[in-house]
Amino acid sequence: MARLAVQVMNADRMMTRAKASDQGIEFAFADGCTGMISFGDIPEIGSLSNLVDMELPNPYEAVLRNRRGETVELPWDFARHYCDPAYRPRVDQIAATGRSSLGDRIRRIRESEGLTQNELAKAAGIGRITLVRIEKGGSSPRYATLIALAKALGRSPADLLA
Questions:
Q1: pLDDT in tens, 25-63
Q2: Does the residue 36 lie in any domain?
Q3: Number of independent structural domains in the chain
Q4: Which CATH number belongs to the domain containing residue 152 in this structure?
Q5: Which ranges of 29-162 would DSSP assign to H, the alpha helix?
Q6: Angle at 27 between CA 22 and CA 32, to 5 degrees
Q7: Pairwise CA distance, residues 17 & 11, whole Å
Q8: pLDDT tens-digit series, residues 94-119
Q9: Cβ(58)–Cβ(114) under 8 Å?
Q10: How many Å apart are CA 159 and CA 152, to the nearest integer?
Q11: Which domain holds residue 130?
């Protein structure tokens, strides 16, 4: 009989261990991935001698305290970036897909309303080149720009995002 293996959903997001050493802090994730964040990349701590306390209050963040009493929160994705070389390209791909979907949605709504890029850009108070970049998925709109586009299209921001 073949053996099956299952893993906790989102195990790549769950930190299970943090251990300090002279070089930095080693993190382990529920899916077995491990890696080190050097103290040079955590300037508020700087060195092992400046680290007073460390805890994992939940699987998604580590909390460090330095000698000055300052607290440094390290989210799971910050740690994962250091532990998993394949993490960043996956996240970048997901972001690109999201930008592309949003841009396509805005373009389809604009076209269904019979607006040109110039007309929508003017109504939203943005440059046409900015709109072109958003529609092509080359950039994400700032929140204020998203609101302005939604208003100019007579839609809610949720309509553009969903």
A1: 999 999 889 999 999 999 999 999 999 999 999 999 999
A2: yes
A3: 2
A4: 1.10.260.40
A5: 76-83, 87-112, 117-124, 128-135, 143-152, 157-161
A6: 135
A7: 13
A8: 889 999 999 999 999 999 999 999 99
A9: no
A10: 13
A11: 92-161
